[in-house]
Amino acid sequence: MMKIIERIELVMGDITLEDADAIVNAANSRLAGGGGVDGAIHRAGGPTIMEECRKIGGCPTGSAVITSGGRLKARFVIHTVGPVYRGGGRGEAELLARAYRSSLEIARDRALQTMAFPSISTGVYGYPVKEASRIALKTVYEFLKTNDMPSLVRFLLFSQSDLETYMAAFKELA
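The structure assignment produced for this chain is given below.
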């Protein structure tokens, strides 16, 4: 098995253009589309994704569900709901870790080789990127230690500063 660190990549880019088995959507609990990454994925993927989301109905914070990728290059979209940040004392860290774990479990259970995450909860949900990056990377790293799938997890970061923050957190793992 490859070393865990070699199975995690950090890049700056647009998750809607990612050619992976699955991309992860930072969704809301109603799976209703929205702004940021969520809105971009729904716009790029077309109406099929929203139709499938409506049939599913909703997704609690910390959980994940899967739909087809619609018109995206990715075959699937894993929709996960991260927590709204309210200062860090209301279980936000565990809920964020659970959002990543739930997404990884779906990928593993579907035997998906490659998946791409955005930085969950760090946009309109207000989670500080530095703290969120540590939780995200530690959760993925711990999951990959005991699971062969997915074989590659890529983080698609929206800005250079987010990429640099994730790279600093990644160095702490290595």
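Interim note for the steering committee: Helices lie at 36-45, 47-56, 92-109, 129-145, 160-173. The beta strands are 8-12, 22-26, 64-68, 76-80, 114-117, 152-157.
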